[in-house]
Amino acid sequence: VIILTARILSNEDLERCNRGVASILGKGLFSASETLNHIESALGRHNTLGGATRQLVRQAMAYIHSHFTESLAREEIAEKIGISPDYLTDCFRQELGITPITYIRRYRVRQACELLRNTNQSITEIAMNVGFSESAHFSHTFLREMGVTPRAYRLNGKE
């Protein structure tokens, strides 16, 4: 089973998914080719190490989803789930094909997309609400991830 969701999953949701689910992908966090790679990888995985790695990544994802508005470092995430920062990065690369920091960045941008579509908050307020400390850095990151500025995204409703 592969789950593609736009919903924020809690620790409890992720725990329930640990049985029988090969992969959980956040809608809009991965390109089409990355999604296909995840599916191929999930279909090819049949060992216990993959299961343990998958569970660690899900724990890290749950922590990220709960704390994305705060300043997050991979050291902090790794400490919370009881592994080294380098092993955390290895697990993310193995399971998702990206680093934890890339996952955090994409997750924040996707949360910003929701706020841009559904609120009248300023770009600066949205930047702060999704965990960026500077509006300029947020705008640059948003442009790199989405291909348009936050303002253009809001005006065009582009996704």
Structure description:
It is a single chain. With about 160 residues, this protein is mostly helical. The chain folds into two domains: about 100 residues, no CATH class; about 50 residues, Homeodomain-like (Arc Repressor Mutant, subunit A), CATH 1.10.10. It is built from nine helices and two strands. The chain has a two-stranded parallel ribbon with strand order 1-2. Strand 1, helix 1 and strand 2 form a beta-alpha-beta unit. It is globular, with a radius of gyration of 16 Å.
Task: Return the string of H and E elements.
Answer: EHEHHHHHHHH
Percent of residues in β-strands: 5-15%
Strand numbers in spatial order across the main sheet: 1-2
Whole-number count of domains: 2
Q: How much helix, percentage-wise, in residues?
A: 55-70%
Helical segment tally? Answer: 9
The overall average pLDDT, rounded, is 85
Rg, Cα atoms, Å: 16 Å
Cα distance spanning the termini? 27 Å
Number of strands: 2
Largest sheet, in brief, is: 2 strands, parallel
Multimeric organization: single chain
**What structural class results from the helix and strand content?**
mainly alpha
Note poorly predicted spans.
Answer: none
Rough outline: globular
Short description:
The chain has 159 residues and is mainly α. It has 9 helices and 2 strands. The two termini are 27 Å apart.
What keyword list fits this structure?
159 residues, mainly alpha, Arc Repressor Mutant, subunit A, 2 domains, two-stranded parallel sheet, 9 helices, 66% helix, globular
